[in-house]
Amino acid sequence: MYLIALKMLIGDKLKYIGLIVALSFASFIITQQGAIFLGIMKRTFSFITDTSQPNIWVMDKRVQFVDDIKGMKQTALYRVRSIDDVEWAVPMYKGLIPARLRNGVFQSCVFVGIDDATLIGGPPILLEGTLDKLHFPDAVFVNKVGADTKLASKEGDITIPLRVGDVMELNDRRAYVAGICDTSRTFQSQPVIYTTYNNATTYAPLVRDVLSFVLVKSRSGVDPEALCEKITRDTGYAAYTTWQFQKLTMMYYAKNTGIVVNFGVAIILGFIIGMAISGQTFFNFIIDNLPYFGTFKAMGVSNTVLVKMVVLQALMVSAIGWGIGVGAAAIFGWSLSGTELSFSLAWWLYVLSSFSLLFICFVGALFSVMKVVRVDPAIVFKS
Amino acid sequence: METTVLCKNLKLTYGTGPTAVEALRGIDLEVKKGELLMLMGPSGSGKTTLVSVIAGILTQTEGECLISNLDLNHMPDKEKTLYRGTHIGFVFQKYNLIPMLTTAENISVPLLILGQDRKVALEKAKKLLFEVGIPEKADVSPVELSGGQQQRVAIARALIHDPDIIVCDEPTSALDHESGMKVMDLLRSVIDKTGKTLIVVSHDPRIQQFAHRIVKMEDGKIVR
């Protein structure tokens, strides 16, 4: 009987295609909007992700997210280093600095100063040059996206990217481009410029405390979360594991910007539209087939079997609609990879969209099942 | 001869209060095994209601209806459904064939309901298609068949699970005269061959000749 249920479903081609299209659309919107939302949220903490060597970040207690810099005293570094279970601790400067372009325009850049001795905290991928070149006077590394776009100069219609060997002006001081690196795109899409910590302090605007973060690696076998608590207890500074700091940053943006609401609305709309269209189409499909269900009932099919037939039909269209939707979302993300679009298709988005579609199918089936269960078998004798 | 259907003082009322409609008003009826009984009468006379009660689809308000000595009125719904699936065959006025299935698949449905293997059911369906005279139509959709052919498929479907009683509701009303005669001829030959009980509801006087017995109904009562 279940095979018959599937044949009834597929046999009504117009409604079957309508159902699949509606469910695919819902699945696509939920997955695609979710992936874009996740991609954007990941961008908020991309700097933390790119700085992969430390597993603990120490900072001022008032810091709310990665770009919210509150300087610490230089002694913070030594206090952290003195704590047991700290394998190593290095300083990092992070701030915004104006870069003056050849045409005189100023462009705000993320400016990062990494430990002079170890160069820990440097860019994740080097495209041109080696990191030790940062030891040259006024040497900086610029991220490729920044060098190709916002820091590029324009001569007429021609865009000339910043190249190794070029000289630029950072906060009214000369800087020499010693290398090009690749970094993840940041939330605000500003160019990222790396130099050494000591160099950075000379470029940075004059402030009393320039130490932004202390990057820490815990000793092997030590629980990083426990070490964070110990650092906070002993120094009074905030200490977070990489994931905790990513979460703190993400939650800041989630709470203080309209991102969650905007994307939430899009996802909910996709869900509601998908549910309305597919639920209605599925219900109509069942209503159209009610005489056949009545015939089955008259011929001895129990309500339990009829319900299972309807549920199977609903599950079948949901599974196909979900597959097409997530497939289309994946193709969408793949085709736009390397562009400005932020897109991160995490495994749990597949789960989310599948549960959403199951819910849609459950609601559609529920109303239909009630009709089928209540159908009077005497319908078969009505001409 | 063995009694297959025995109805005593059968009453059925639709609805309650001032809008209630008495569809059956004390029916006494006995149908023997192997008999082709034709229920005739004008629209609204209660013919279809009576066969619905006999087939276990509707439950009478009063009286008794024994089918092969079983009182369906006292059966739980689940058992009644199972009983219908096992002992009753249906032929409907509008055929009620599923257009998304082939004719052979349509015929095999009663066997699938009883849990039989699909392959076996389809083979039996094809044999029955041969017996009803359209073996070449096994793999086509019912919508590609003429009315007469569709009714033949419906007859094959009613026979496939070897029921005790076959209930036909206006089997010829949607057919032209020639097709109607052929369908009735087929039904009669099935009865003569198998000894099953056949109850036909009709108001088509042209098919009276096929009946062993004709019962006329009016206003929910048997008048002759």
Description:
- The complex is a heterodimer of chains A (383) and B (224).
- With 383 residues, chain A is α+β, with helices and mostly antiparallel strands.
- Chain A folds into two domains: 2-43 and 259-375, no CATH class; 73-236, no CATH class.
- Helices cover 51% and strands 19% of the residues of chain A.
- Chain A has helices spanning 2-11, 13-44, 46-50, 75-81, 144-148, 197-203, 224-235, 242-256, 259-298, 303-335, 347-374, and strands at 56-59, 86-100, 106-114, 125-128, 139-143, 153-155, 158-160, 167-170, 173-182, 192-196, 213-218, 238-241.
- In chain A, the strands form two sheets. A six-stranded mixed beta barrel of chain A has the order 2-3-10-5-9-8. Chain A has a two-stranded antiparallel sheet with strand order 6-7.
- In chain A, α9 (259-298) packs antiparallel against α10.
- The longest helix of chain A has 40 residues, at 259-298.
- Chain A starts with a helix and ends in a 9-residue tail after the last helix.
- With 224 residues, chain B is an alpha/beta fold.
- Chain B has one domain: P-loop containing nucleotide triphosphate hydrolases (Rossmann fold).
- Chain B contains six helices and ten strands, in the order βββαββαβαααβαβββ.
- Chain B has helices at residues 47-54, 77-87, 103-113, 118-131, 147-159, 177-194; strands at 3-14, 21-32, 36-40, 62-67, 70-71, 88-91, 165-169, 197-202, 213-218, 221-222.
- Chain B has a six-stranded mixed beta sheet with strand order 6-7-8-3-9-10. A four-stranded antiparallel beta sheet of chain B has the order 2-1-4-5, covered by helices on one side.
- In chain B, β1 (3-14) and β2 form a beta hairpin.
- The longest helix of chain B has 18 residues, at 177-194.
- The radius of gyration of chain B is 17 Å and the shape is globular.
- The two termini of chain B are 21 Å apart.
- The chains are: A alpha+beta (383), B alpha/beta (224).
- Chains A and B meet through α1 and α9 of A and α1, α2 and α3 of B.
